[in-house]
Amino acid sequence: MRKQLIATLFLIASMPSWATMEEALSDYKKGNYGAAIKELNRLGDAGNMSAQIMLGALYNKGGAVELNDKMAANWFEKAANQGNAEAQFQLGNLYENSQLPKDYRLAASWYQKAAQQGSAKAQARLGVFYSLGLGVTQDPNEAILWSGKAALQGNADAQYWFGLGYMQGKRAPKDAQIAMGWLSKAAAQGHTDALLLMARAYQRGDGTPKDAVLAYALNKLALANKASSSATQQRDDLTEALNPQQLEVSNKLASELQKPKNFSVALNAYIDKYHQAPFRFFDRPEK
What we know:
Layout: H1 2-11, H2 19-30, H3 33-45, H4 49-61, H5 69-80, H6 85-96, H7 104-116, H8 120-132, H9 140-152, H10 156-168, H11 176-187, H12 192-204, H13 212-224, H14 229-241, H15 244-258, H16 263-274
Helix pairs in contact: 1-4, 2-3, 3-4, 4-5, 4-6, 5-6, 6-7, 7-8, 8-9, 9-10, 10-11, 11-12, 12-13, 13-14, 13-15, 15-16
């Protein structure tokens, strides 16, 4: 989750702000952290949400200031109480994943506020919370509702959640075709777990045609995203199952799948050529 804070810092630059906020951002980008933090504190104390969110992100990230999740929560809460959805999500994340004592009830409460404002990442987490009963009463219908909202907004975690559910027959009737549709949408965004689950399905022929070439290509993309050690074992098993010509085809396919906005196009072209699939789910190009 901390990786998302980098994007948060630069998102702030596009938010409405005072001229002095621009100066603080300029000092930060130049490495003049002392001057930037001083100005951000002044602005944050005066109620500037952009400054409050940036201070929360900085304290949660560490570097320009010493990592301090208690301070991060303090600043995020100031902006969250003003109704800022990003701050509400970040505050929920702190109560779920940080140095602070875990408080799933508070995390769920802040996720709920952000989700109701349309935050896809908050909706995705809230769906998981309802699915597992974390800080809220376990409710499969609410889980599907919120995860569905996030998935339809393009949230890769929610898309993976649906794909996994359809693949396992949990939360929905088992349907490999629908599962692969959702997983492919998440995989197109580089979601490591989605790539690995698709690779395993094609490796085993689990509701799909058995295809080690495609499995190896998907596994290769997952490894490029620093997947777990299990992915390395999967790669080794697949390597043994392929001859040199098949490995060459698989590596070329992986290169095509990895091109920007080309995952669905390359995947569907391969399936059409080798599987003659009569129907493909979510046959739309990535945005």
